[in-house]
Every structure is written in structure tokens, then in C-alpha cells.
Write a structure and sequence with these properties.
Blueprint: H1 35-45, E1 58-67, E2 86-95, E3 110-118, E4 121-128, H2 141-148, H3 159-167, H4 173-179, E5 194-195, E6 200-203, E7 209-218, H5 227-236, H6 240-250, E8 256-265, H7 268-271, E9 291-300, H8 305-310, E10 323-324, H9 329-345, H10 421-429, H11 432-446, H12 451-464, H13 466-476, H14 480-487
Antiparallel strand pairs: 1-2, 1-9, 2-3, 3-4, 5-7, 6-7, 6-10, 7-8, 8-9
The structure holds protoporphyrin IX containing FE.
Keywords: Heme, Hydrogen peroxide, Iron, Metal-binding, Oxidoreductase, Peroxidase
Family: Belongs to the catalase family.
Cofactor: heme
Amino acid sequence: MKTCPHQTTAAGTPVTDNQNSQSAGPRGPLLMQDYQLMEKMAHFNRERMPERVVHAKGAGAHGTLTITGDLSRYTCAKLFAKVGNSCEMFARFSTVAGEMGSADTARDPRGFALKFYTEEGNWDLVGNNTPVFFVRDPLKFSDFIHSQKRDPATGLRDNTMQWDFWSLSPESLHQVTTLFSDRGIPASLRHMNGYSSHTYSLWNAAGERHWVKWHFKTLQGNKTLSNEEAAAIAGRDLDHHRRDLHAAIARGEFPKWQVQIQIMPERDADTYRIHPFDLTKVWPHRDYPPMDVGIMELKRNPRNYFAEVEQAAFEPGNMPPGMGASPDKMLQARLLSYPDAHRYRIGINYAALPINKPHCPISTYHRDGQSRFDGNGGGAVNYQPNSFGGPVEASSVKEPPLRLQGDAGRYDHHDGNDDYQQAGDLFRLMSGGQQAQLLGNLAEALRPVPRFIQLRQLLQFYRADAAYGSGVAQRLGIALDEVIGKAA
Ligand code: HEM
């Protein structure tokens, strides 16, 4: 489209004066007929759309994914058909609990949201920088988030709310241990790993399914911040991580991640000692060794932050043929939650925005709706089946049926699901220095919390490992007997 040499209104009529409003005489009052002033004020009043209810503060960049490992026997997705294939992608990294203007260096998991524009449609992997999560049933998600956000009375973030929830939700212990470890505050968005966290699936043309977990290992090396370093940076620059990512890419230092995958044959899920669809668990690498399958590289900064980073809409349900979900209850809920959030936050036609639009042809029967800014399908037939050459189903790429069993009901997610083993394993895996950092970080966060909540949480640590419980207790000046007595 031709660019206009002069300023115009949204309707394209020339703006003759952008400094002086129309007034009755040089000293005012103003005239209602000043359409340009009205339009300018009205547009400004509507500049904000709601921020994301979680993960509001973020940074994004464009890049590529290049396939380096052969996955063709596991999936018919064309992206993985041969080594050397590549696609364009967009990444958005974020903190979880803070608002749009909050500090980048908070102790918080980091969102690791990726949109791969494959030739068969978008593949979105909406993960975190940690391999596990705080809860395993989506019914608890909004309560968990409320406990991390602001106190309804004071409007302040509140340690008591956080530890009240965590101490009453022992399934959170593995993720809490990760969060308060030395890995809990990344030094930059370039120096952290990403994980699908959930189990997903791959399926092939023969109808075979494998369960998979995705890993993105930073090739810049893992670097982290201590509480003191993070606080000092936040005092100087709330946008430290956003600035660092932008500056590195502008300098031509393109961050890269090694993409890896853990693969489990479908039937193993029936007998594996660890619940394979429990988001609070990892699959130990000795059981399912990660395999290198690609390199992700970020190479281009957004040209417009709002259009690209704010309007980006990721959804775990976006998967080309050959890739699928799993019975993980959290993932199942997220399949619905994200598009629902986008319809509210951006509007029904969010998928047609340039940042979200697939880089392959699209052919749907969706029409109309607010902010329809493309051709709306023109005069093409808008119902199906039809006799006028409209698009038809691609039945050759049907996901194989999934075996299900069991009676419908509400099952206690703690039954048969150990909450402590992997949290304890993580603690035992740490060096003495890492353990000391973890214990110190936890004691600092628990100090302002009422004693009965401290005791309840100390018992959770103790159940994972006696040294874990006693280490935090000692730093809080609490006798271990009191903690254990609580259990009796
Ligand atoms: C953002 C819901 C669990 C990663 C969001 C948003 C919602 C949401 C509503 C805002 C979306 C938007 O406005 O664009 C949920 C629910 C969950 C859940 C209901 C559990 C039942 C998780 C888990 C992960 C995760 C387990 C990581 C493994 C993210 C990321 C974003 C996000 C990375 C930001 C995406 C972006 O950059 O736009 N979540 N979430 N969430 N969530 Fe979740």
C-alpha cells in the first residue's frame, strides 16, 4: 500500500493542524465539531487491552527452529519429516505473578511460550523454565494464582497467602523446591532452559503413539541471580530482562537453545512407576534419555511491541497433524483456557492478527465477529457440506484413537501419587552450596509467615528429606521436635 506523505485521520482525511484544537476564539472553549481532537482522545482512551491474567510482563523475539534429529518414525508432522527442515517461530518469555510493569528479576517461574509457524499450521508450545508445576488438578489453578497475586484487602503481595496455599498443597513441593533453589531467578532470558513440562504425544501414519516431553536447553549456559543481586537490579531497572534480550539480538548475539525430547512408548504409561501424566513429576533421564532433535535460534527483535508481543496469543491446543495432547488433567484444561482467554483479552478474531496467523494457507468456515479486519472469506461459500467447492476435511491426517478406561468421577489426586520423593531427590542432588542457598531462600520467604503455617510447611520439607526440613527449621530458629510433633 502507498504510504501517505502527510498525517491523516483514521479515515484517511488530512490532519491540517495537530498542535491546536478548534476553539471559539483564541482562549477557548472548544468546539464539538473538532473531529480530529475527538478521534485522538477516544483512541487514546482505548489503547489498553486487558493484560494477561497471568504472565503479564514479558519480552519476545522472532527466530527459527531447525531440525537436527530424526523424528520421522514417531510423527507424520512434516516439520520433522527430515533433518535440515526448518520453520520460522516467535518466542515470548514472561514472569507469572507480576503485572505488566513489574520487576523482571522477581523469584518466579518464567513462561517459555513458543509459536512455530509450520507448513501444516501453528504448533504452540506454552511451557515454563521449570519441568514441573505447583498443582496437578486444574480445579486448583485459579486458587493457586490468587494466593500468588495481591491480597484483596491490602493490595499487597503476601507471603502468608503463598505459604498457606503451598503448605496445604503438598503436590507443590517439587516446584517450590525448584523455585527457591539457585535456579529460581534466571540472570537473563537467554540463560535459562525451557520445558513443555506436560507430557504431549507424537503419532505416525501407522497409528502408533508415543508420549513425549520437550526440553529447550540454553546454549548460552544456565546463569542465575541471588536474591541480593536480583533486588539490586530491580532497584535500577525493572525491565532488565526485556532490555537484555533486545540488546543481545540488536548486537547480533542470537541466543540458541538445543531442543531435546524424551520419548515413551504408549503402552509404557500403563506400567511406568511414575504417573506419566502428573505435571508435578519429571521422567528421570536414565529411564527416558533426552534425544537432540533441533536448534532454536532467536534472531529478530519485534518491530512493534504491542502488535507482536502483546497481541501474541499462544494456545497449547495448536498442534499440526502428528502431534497431540495427553491425558494430563492440567493440559486438558489448558486446551480450553487459552483460546477462551484470547477471545476475552484480544477478541474473537485474534487468530487472524499477523503475529498469530499461520504462515500456511488457512481455510475455515468462521465468519464475521468483532474486528474482522481481513476479507472475511469474500464471497466464498460459508457452510459445509456444500456443492460449491468449499474446503473439505483432510481425513488422511486423523489422530489414532486413544484407549481410555475408568468410571467418571472426582478422584483424589493425592491417591497413589507421591508428593515427596522427587522433591527430596532434587534436594539430594544439590551440592552443599546449592542446598545452603535453597534453605536460606526458603527461610527468608517463610520468616514473615504465622508460625502455624511455618510448622505445616516445615513438615512438608521434612517429609521430602529430614535434612531439608531440619535445615529450614534451624534457620527459622524452630526446633525440629516441634515440627515432627505436629505430624504426630
Ligand atoms: C498464560 C491459564 C498452567 C504457561 C496463561 C493465561 C491463562 C493461563 C488464562 C493468559 C493467556 C493470555 O491471556 O494470553 C492457565 C491454566 C493453567 C495454566 C488454566 C492450568 C490449569 C500453565 C502451565 C504452564 C503455563 C502448567 C507451563 C508449563 C503459561 C505461559 C503463559 C501462560 C508461558 C504466557 C503465554 C504468553 O506468553 O502469552 N495461562 N495456565 N501455564 N501460561 Fe498458563
